[in-house]
Description:
The complex is a heterodimer of chains A (270) and B (95).
Chain A: H1 2-8, H2 14-30, H3 35-52, H4 55-76, E1 81-88, H5 95-112, H6 115-125, H7 137-148, E2 149-154, E3 165-172, H8 175-202, H9 209-215, E4 220-223, H10 236-265
Antiparallel strand pairs in A: 1-3, 1-4, 2-3
Helix pairs in contact in A: 1-3, 4-10, 5-8, 6-7
Chain B: H1 4-12, H2 19-30, H3 36-49, E1 52-54, E2 64-66, H4 68-94
Antiparallel strand pairs in B: 1-2
Helix pairs in contact in B: 1-2, 1-3
Amino acid sequence: MKHWVRLASYFYPASWRRRYARELDALLDEADTQWKDFFDILKGALTMHFTSWNFKTILFTFAGIGAIIAAAIAFSIPRQYRSMSVMRLPGSVEGDARIDFAQHVNQMEREVLSRTSLEGLITELDLYKRQRTWRPGEAIVRDMRDHDIRIGTIQAPGSNVSPTAFSIAFSYPDPKLAQIVTSLLVSKFMEENEAYNHGVFQRWRGRDFAEVRAQFRSVGLLDPATWPEQPILPRKTQLVLIGLFSGLLAGLTVAYASHWRISIVRRPAH
Amino acid sequence: MTDPTLLVLASLADGDKHGYAMMEDIERFAGVRLGPGTLYGAITRLEERGWIRAVAAEDRRQPYTITALGRRHLEEQVSSLNAVVKAAQRRLKHA
Lengths: 270, 95
């Protein structure tokens, strides 16, 4: 233990060590050192550095440390790839039909993103392998639904009627699996839509054809699942910049704090 | 009173001491164990302020003594603390 505490004392600035190292060594020889003394010495050494450094040195050192930490985090975060597919909605739908169609899409979405449906995908493709060893299946499905799958409507530019298409996207560390899952989600949407239309035909018998036609929903594939070439996460440049600015901010605080401390130390004797 | 600088001044008020002796003394009279980094941070600041100074050493252990300026500062701090303690005691009695 004493060895580590003594080692930590080498972090003091050279000027400080020239004056106090000998007597600190003598103290360490006598004292019953503990682990907390190691951190106490490190803290003391850092404080001495800050009080002996000038404003610019503190600022740039902190900014550099912030950037290095952020870069380390950025490189340790697993990459995420996003594949996206676009599905076409029928022409312009207005009035009550618009609300009805939105309900239809929501209904399909509920079915496609149901726990049973997503659990089936996870098992079939062996997704989230590591997470499944320590997290409950319910939590994994919830995260997949809330964070990894994105469903959004697309409106034609300048159009003030209903959306003309909707997108389905899935993010995953493996680009190939991201594309496969997106394709399977699209297939599930198509199946749900077919099941709905099948129900309409079943109920058709003896009714007016125009009424049935109005209930028929046509959903088609516009863009198949894309191959994600570039990862969407981590945003390395953004993270490094955040680290840099956080470091600058911390440096500024420490620089002002140590300046304030020095001005107290050097105030004229009364 | 846990300010390390005041604890060091209080320890030196009854005679010169080196680092380890200060650590032991402070633990005895205040029940606070100052780590070596904290103790030497306080010693450095107090020496810079001119409130303590190093005296002749016989070995590697460097004894320090409190200066007149340091003693005056300690007296001021103690009287201010006394005022706080008295006010708190008075208020506790009336509560």
